[in-house]
Predict the 3D structure of the following.
Amino acid sequence: MGHKNNGTALRSADLHAIVRIGEGIRGVVDTAREVNLAALNAMLSSRRGGDNAVGFRVASAELRGISTRLMEAMQGLTLLVSSMVNEVAQRQRKQRNQDYFRRVQGSQDRVGGLLSEIFGTQEEEVDRLSMLLGQSRRDLHMKASRALRLCDQGLILSRSALIEAAYGGESAPALKQVAEQLAQSIHSVAETLGGVRAELEEART
Amino acid sequence: MKKLETLFSEGTHQWQVIARDPERASALIDTNEYLIAHGNEAMLTDPGGLEIFPVVFSALAAGFDPRRVKWIFASHQDPDVISSLSLWLEFNPALRCYASRIWGSFLPHYGGDETTFIGLPDEGGKLPLGGIELDVVPAHYLHSSGNFHLYDAKARILFSGDVGAALPPPEEDELFVTDFDRHIRHAEGFHRRFMGSKEAVLDWCERAAVMDIDMLCPQHGSIYQGADVMRFINWFAELEVGSGLLATRPEMKKAA
């Protein structure tokens, strides 16, 4: 019974990890949406700064573009996560069935021959699903890394926006406040994505 | 460990029961699985839940070639009846499962697809098995809304699903009823609560009373044989059912 519970706990750990990754992605989408709005706000605020705020306006527009690309990237990640949930659920079902048939074999040696073909097929199917899951994890890791590179660009741009805000004349304090908010949001996105990537690396080990 | 025991044997025609698992987890209700064989084919009635599949399969394989099981008969849709279906299909993907047609889109949640299920019409009918025919007996609302029993005129055995079921304490959990009055106390609460319609009870009793039955084989508890079969039918016809309503309609309690 203890062995059975261990197996169940290990298998549900996979599903829990994927759920945490999915939640991270949802968090990124929410924050990226905030960045998008904040960047739009920054572009509008920069108009009040006139020619002095042209640099700030350019940086804000770029940041807006980055947040849009981040949201698009998260859509791809969300699709990948749902296919992983499906793969994990299928593998869990197969492994659970394997457990039941192993319990048959354990109590009746003479039926072992009868079930050997089933064990072979089950093993192949679990291996196939494990390979699919591994591939999905690698894809997810790659996409999360790409999204993190976008965040790096966003952080550079948010620093530029902060510098450009200083040239905003009378609007400088307001622009500085917006630039700081942008930097904070991008930083938060990067942190969440870093967590997603770490989760994937942990699942791989 | 469950055991396969023979109830009827005449040539290649056999009824066997897989019953009594003293090692089962206490959270699980004990179940009886019946194997009906004729010629080269066999049918398993209410093969049970996922958790008991290993013991049912082991007990079956200890005395019978499980590859000969071509059919499953599900009296109704409950998990203790048929949730092991996906495992039986994994062993033999060609297995076909008979059940009320109303469960056609519910049962695939346990496994199988549109090719697995043969939907039985409300009025019942005949099922072929290795050259003979078994009678599908309607028992709707006893307790499930799409519910069937199975009668074998050759063996004079009625598989009665949850009708006749009892939940006796381990020390009284015999394969056959030996003391009807003592046994029926363990069936009373179950029937009062699980059977929802007096009309359905009387309909079934009228039908069962005219059948030639040597053994009445429920899915839980002991098997009724001989005179105890008619004793049970009479007892059931008199029983007030639908006790769940007492909780919300106290005036019924007073009347009872």
Observations:
- Chain B has a mean pLDDT of 94.
